[in-house]
Known about the structure:
Layout: H1 14-28, E1 33-36, H2 51-79, E2 82-87, H3 100-119, E3 125-132, H4 145-157, H5 169-181, E4 190-193
Parallel strand pairs: 1-2, 2-3, 3-4
Helix pairs in contact: 1-2, 2-3
Amino acid sequence: GGEAVVHALDITDGDSVDAFAKAVVADLGDVEVLISNAGAVAPGTIHEVDTDRFARELDLNIVGAHRLVRSFVPDMVARQRGDVVFVSSDVAVRARPFMSSYAAGKWGLEGMAHAMQMELEGSGVRASIVRPGPTWSEMGTDWDVEQAAFVLNQWVRFGMARHPHFMKPQAIADAIAMVVRAPRGVHLNLIEVSPEAPIATTPITEPVEGR
Length: 211
């Protein structure tokens, strides 16, 4: 077993992030692994979403990650050792309707991470991306039921729900662990994790009648 400590953190507040970083170092010593996993999504049609809300969600989903980088990565670079893992989403490469700010934030997050990978090359610090597909989590549980049903049906309409399977969060945790456990000299730049489809009742090699 390991040791866990808990500290308050508001990722949208730079002072809170700085205080958090100092408290973590005081409790645990030098930080060798930083995982940026905070995020939020609220459904809405892009031309109807309030601009302030759109900006708040971007602040959380991408600017917050940069605040963590600013507070933790300089010391990693000075020590020439560390891992930074950004938890992205498949919306970064396959945008979904009615969650535009989340898609924009994850696209931006991956852009920032790719730039970091080049900037940190040769520093001893690895920046990696874990890109999950559909996952059961608390995200979206505060959505209105009818609104959530509408959004999910629109995903089906646009071909974004080939099958109904979702992953458990443990699958994402396992992917993160694999990234940071990679031996020195190996850099897992990007890991995409998707739920496996259910076993097909009809082999895909068989012709489908009428086609």
